[in-house]
Structure formats: structure tokens, C-alpha cells
Amino acid sequence: MARISGIVTVERDGLHNGFTDILFWQGAYWISFRKSQGHISPDGETFISVSGDGEQWRNACRIKIPGDNRDPRLIAVSENRMALIISTWMDGYTSDSLGFQRKRLLSFIMFSEDGHNWTEPRQTLPENRWLWKIRRFNDRYYAANYGLTEGATWSSRRISFEFMASDDLVNWEKVSDLGEGDFVPIETDMAFREDGEVWLVSRNDIKTSGMVDSHFSSALPPYTNWETVNLGTVIHSPELVTIDRNVYLAGRCDMVKDSSLPWPYPREWSMALWKLGRGAVEPILYFPACGDCSYPGMLVDPNGNLCISYYSQHAYGMGVIPSTSGFEPADIFFAKIDLSE
Which CATH fold topology does 3-338 show? Predict the structure, then answer.
């Protein structure tokens, strides 16, 4: 079993801090996250924090694109250049039976040579396509991209998934489609194997029922023929990393359905680390997290440490910190994981 060897609070200010990513670049750890009044609110903006040792963190920059900025992603282009992907809901939200209705989504990219100063945002995909996660393999960038089918609205659940490739992070080409019927991936990450095969883990919103499940998909080059297996569990915001040929998966879990551990808290969500096999997952660690939580970033640093960024409301849900602001506070954490058995 894995264990947490160290954990640090990166951001705690009474606001909702969440949706993280992490990068080791220019000898430092960088964590990107969204800051707002709540999980779904029109005021989201992007912050990036930096640390030389993983212990002491400071704010590197604040970025605000018009709209609700969500899920900022960091990519190392070179030793001297870093990229940031931000998707943003334009025009706010309107009410529907769920309490809100998404309107118009745009995905942007920006570049920096120091992590503090950034180029102007540039749109990367057509309207209502979400550039979710990007990985580099054999000098090309590959991306999980989902969004609306032609003429659809976000409330209709008519969504399609595309596996994309790019040479420069700006101009993207579709490699293949994935999903049919009730299976259409949304939040998806990928890991490339030594022989070029790619493994995908995706959260899937079932169109006919609105329920959620998760799938494992795989394909060999040229990534046009996919095999898919239902994982039999729900993993929100999956994040993958490869260590010594083993693939590990982090994401939000359902402690009531998927764990035999006692869970006395009113909301069932927590965060877990799994070992990923071909079409199967084995939980090896549960994190101190509950409520609105997870959306991790994950990497292996130059010292071989498995490092994870994530967010959680457990300090408030467990009564350690009282919250009277009327917001939905959540904090950002940085954890190091010992995988030795």
C-alpha cells in the first residue's frame, strides 16, 4: 500500500480554490488552480503558485480571461517555455432545472518564459469544444477534447469526444472519434506505453439517464481503433502517471460505494490513488479529502517523488475551520506519496 509522506496547504483564504494541475519546471514546482466563490459560479479566475522545495509556496501570477475560467492546465514546452490552457464559460449562466445552464465555452492557450508573465490568450479550438488534457509523446502533443455536436446545447447532453494531435499546441487535428450510444467520454487523461499504445481513463456522463460511470480505452498507433472496458466504478477528473512501467491513477471516488472504510460525512466524495491495469483498477491510497474535492495534478519530480496537487473541503466539513462567509470554501494541497511496499 502507498502512504502520504508529506502534505502541505498551498492556498487557504476562505474562497473556493480548486481544479488543479502541477508541473515541475525550471527547478520549481508550479500549481495552477481556479479561484472563485463556488464550484459553479461566474467569477472563476486562474492563479499559479510556485515553490522551490514543495514546502513554502507563493503566488506567481493571477490570470483573468472574460467569463468563468476553469481547469487551468500546465504544459512544459521546453526548458525556457511553459504553456497554460484555460477553458472559460462565456456569457455567464442561466437557470434551468439543475439550477444553472452552461452557455458558450471557449478554450485558450497562453505561453510564458518565466511563469509570471504570459502572452495574450489565443483561442485553440472551435466554440464549445473543451481541450481537457494534453500529453506529449514522440515530439507530438495529444489531447482529450470533448464538446457539443452540431446544433446541440449543453443541457441536451449531445456530446462527442475527439482524440487530437498537434505539433505546436495551437493548431489541432482530429485523429479519431471515441464513444457511441451511451458511452461518450468527457473528463479524460492518457498514458503512453513503451510500444506507443495509449491508455485512456475517462469519466462518462450517460446521456439517457444523466448517471456517471468510468471507462478504460486503449489503442495502438495510429490511434483509430479503440477497445473499451467499463471499469465498474466512477472516477471523476482522472489523472495518470507512469512510474517504472506501472500506471497510477488519481481522481475523485465514492467512499460509500467503492470503499469498505467507515465514512461518517454527509457527502460521499473523497479522493483515491489506484494502480491501473488493462481495464482494471486497484485502490492503494485514500487521501484526506471530502466534500467538493479532487481534480488532481500528478507528476514524478527529479528526485523520484510522486507529487500530487488537489483540492478539498475537509478542513471545513470536519469542523477544523469554521466557515461563515456564505461561500463554499475549498483549499489547495500538495502531497508527496511513498509507493514502497
Answer: Neuraminidase (2.120.10)
Whether 262 and 303 have beta carbons less than 8 Å apart is answered as no
Q: Give per-residue pLDDT as tens, 223-242.
A: 999 999 999 999 999 999 99
Q: Calculate the alpha carbon distances from 65 to 68, 70, 120, 128 in Å.
A: 8, 10, 10, 16
Are the CB atoms for 301 and 24 separated by under 8 Å?
yes
DSSP one-letter code for 279 = T
User: What's 227's DSSP letter?
Assistant: E
pLDDT at 212: 82
Residue with cell 512510474: 243
Given pLDDT bands bounded at 50, 70 and 90, which one contains residue 316? confident
For residues 254 and 271, the answer to whether their CB atoms sit within 8 Å is: no
> Dmax of the chain from CA atoms?
54
First to last CA, the chain: 6
- Tell me how far apart the alpha carbons of residues 12 and 325 are, in angstroms, rounded to a whole number: 13
What residue spans define the domains of the chain? 3-338
Answer positive or negative: Cα dihedral of 162, 167, 170, 172: negative
Residue (of 227, 167, 180) closest to 200 by Cα position: 227
pLDDT tens-digit readout, 31-45: 999 999 988 888 999
Total residue count of the chain as it appears in this document: 341
Q: Is the peptide bond before 222 cis (omega within 30 degrees of 0)?
A: yes
3-state secondary structure of 113: coil
pTM of the full predicted structure?
0.93
- Inform me whether the pLDDT recorded for 97 exceeds 50: no
Amino acid at 33: F
Compute φ and ψ for 156, nearest 5 degrees: -80, -15
Q: Which residues contact 231 (CB under 8 A, 6 or more apart)?
A: 201, 213, 214, 215, 216, 279, 280, 281
Strand 140-148 relative to strand 159-166: parallel, antiparallel, unpaired? Answer: antiparallel
Q: How far apart (Å, rounded) are the C-alpha atoms in residues 276 and 285?
A: 13
Mean of pLDDT over the chain: 90
